[in-house]
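Journal club prep — side note

Before the paper discussion, L.F. wants everyone to see what a predicted structure for a comparable chain looks like in token form. Sequence:
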Amino acid sequence: MLSDLSNKILLEANKFAPKDLYKVPEIEGYSHDQVVREIYLLEKDGYLDALPSYTQENLYPIAFQNIKITRKGLDFLNTPMGQSTQQQKILILTAIPHGLRLDKETQKIKDAIRRATRRDLFDIRTQTAVRPEHIRRAIAEERPQIVHFCGHGLEDGSLLLEDEEGKDKPVSPEALVSLFNLHINYVQCVLLNACYSEKAAMEISQCIDYVIGMNNPIQDGAAIAFAQGFYDGLGYKISDNQDVFQRAFDEAMVAVKMENLSQSKIPVLKKKKINQLWQKLINKSDEKAGDFIKVIHNPRVSGGIVGKAINTLPTQKIRLNSDFIIQISLESKNRYLILLNQDVDGKIFCICPSFGFAHNWELSRKNINLFMEIPQCPDYPTTWETMKCEKLGTEHFIAILTEQPLDKEAKDLEWLKPSRDEPIPSLDKDERLINLYNSLEKQKKWKVYYQRLNVVK
């Protein structure tokens, strides 16, 4: 199983077969140097033939010409996605047991692989009592496709390792990004089976295609069930159009639900392509438009009507643990609004349209006040409540205006219909953001606005 970048390069080279691809192709989301480095590895492993260009100062090629896909590369492309006959290496890193049953988790992983229908395609390597330098060296030496960390995590997203004296050594999410950015050519999936590891997963997904973390403390039994289910799913045969890691994650979630339903919302899957699409939307925003969101602090809300507010902060900041609502001001009327929010933890939600905030997405006036709408039982009306941020950081908002409404009846956009079952739709699951973006691309005219709001004390 090659990386996402390798797949894209092989597909691009295959478009020109039997002719050569004259120069290094441009691959969206990757720099020229990253593509060159990946072509170097593909050529070295026999997937491509290519003519390199060097300079005296560089040991590695700075460019390639006459790039041609080989029979090995063609055979790989003709194999169903995720069903490559190339052996996959799984590197398991266990750190500081502190009462955790890490040996049992490792054994469950090995048992799952032994039962897999494609068990000969997996090679498991383990390293215990890891220190930062052990992880750094192990990944570089083993060159694994999957890195599985099991141990402790801290509330700030750090993973807890050991120093040379055996004492606790936190490693920050930012440091983990720097580490995995060195290994994007072969690491395809990172599984952080540790408490509070969602923030680290979010950060690492900037450079790795699939990263799994935990958004809360997870019990030993649920963590072991998740690992077992994930590798069960990884070993099953899948259809041509299935995403192998998504399928494995789904299998793991079923395993957790069957083990302990209360833990079933803790594991989260982050995908690099979701991060890239979010950034792509930001890049499309109108930088000259200015702020479109105003924060109203300590408002008096009655029946959806805003009374006199007490503003003690600038309207572009949110006070920690303080009541507020937001006011959207956009000049365009008779258009349709989609308002997305990426919260302090990096989770993406649809604020409008939604059951929790704004049922109607058609703009009929310039200013729109957004409250938290609390669903009541059918016999009682909805009540309006102010909002509150409980973590310091930055809240990101993207407003998308379209001249024509998107088709909420389309199967892949059904989540746009306000529903009590999901008052505030999450765009982190399934392919929602991808489907939304693809639908927007079909629109003749649509406009994007972007704004950041800092949460302060």
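L.F.'s comment for the group: The CA atoms of residues 177 and 204 lie 5 Å apart. Keep this in mind when we get to the figures.
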